[in-house]
């Protein structure tokens, strides 16, 4: 915490360390009134988060480890002034060891779930989930079980590369090999392996993925539609308070 305390940045709520004994430090952070936003903040504000927050933490080799909606504060509903709070789980990045369980499930990076080497990119993943949640008004991935989270990621991004899965400490419940090729386990196989029941049918509610973009030949892009089939333009207008 000393590293974070000495680092001045407008996006952090400054903590104060109070020592009650040589071995115990209590973190006292600013108390803020819990007010709900009257509506979702504009995209122009939320888009500033990555460079303001995660980039600054990376520059001092610190990983927050608990970026989530509860830990992002907007000074005002229409303000780009955002703050990252609650550094209780923050660590120097070099101290993050493979297999460490961090982050709550909706914001948990695939490296954490699969037991891969960890670095500050886990914060960037969590921040991306925060941005998607603010944008769409819903979590981008199911999170009742880690299997459902991984399954949704595979549906959107495809299977991880073979060399990545070879390094994954906790791959066994999620992936198996058929004739040398990796594949995602079926819900039944996952349940048999772990005893955890999972939803068999998954209908991703957010971005439909198309294979080509008329404006950018050959590139993949997301067509954003919510559960009611409303287009990206409608969603952006709603988020900005337009009717």
UniProtKB/TrEMBL annotation:
Key words of the record: ATP-binding, Kinase, Nucleotide-binding, Serine/threonine-protein kinase, Transferase
Region Disordered: start-end pairs: 190-219
Cited PANTHER family: DUAL SPECIFICITY PROTEIN KINASE, HOMEODOMAIN-INTERACTING PROTEIN KINASE 2
GO molecular function, one term: protein serine/threonine kinase activity
Keyword Cell division among record annotations: no
Residue stretches making up the Protein kinase domain: 1-243
SUPFAM superfamilies: Protein kinase-like (PK-like)
InterPro entries: Kinase-like_dom_sf, Prot_kinase_dom, Ser/Thr_kinase_AS, Ser_Thr_dual-spec_kinase
Descriptive protein name: Protein kinase domain-containing protein
């Amino acid at each position: 915490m000393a590293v974070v305390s000495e680092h001045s940045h407008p996006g952090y709520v400054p903590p104060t360390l109070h020592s009650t004994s040589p071995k115990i430090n209590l973190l006292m952070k600013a108390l803020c009134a819990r007010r709900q936003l009257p509506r979702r903040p504009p995209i122009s504000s939320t888009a500033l988060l990555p460079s303001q927050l995660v980039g600054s933490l990376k520059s001092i080799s610190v990983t927050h480890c608990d970026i989530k909606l509860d830990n992002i504060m907007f000074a005002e509903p229409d303000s780009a002034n955002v703050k990252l709070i609650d550094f209780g789980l923050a660590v120097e990045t070099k101290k993050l060891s493979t297999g460490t369980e961090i982050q709550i499930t909706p914001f948990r990076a695939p490296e954490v779930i699969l037991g891969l080497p960890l670095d500050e990119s886990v914060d960037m993943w969590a921040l991306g989930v925060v941005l998607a949640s603010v944008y769409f008004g819903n979590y981008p991935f199911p999170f009742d079980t880690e299997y459902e989270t991984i399954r949704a990621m595979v549906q959107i991004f495809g299977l991880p590369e073979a060399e990545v899965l070879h390094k994954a400490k906790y791959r066994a419940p999620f992936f198996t090999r058929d004739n040398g090729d990796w594949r995602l386990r079926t819900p039944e196989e996952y349940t048999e392996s772990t005893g955890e029941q999972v939803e068999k049918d998954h209908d991703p509610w957010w971005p439909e993925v198309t294979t080509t973009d008329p404006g950018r030949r050959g590139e993949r892009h997301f067509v954003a539609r919510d559960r009611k089939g409303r287009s990206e333009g409608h969603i952006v207008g709603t988020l900005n308070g337009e009717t």
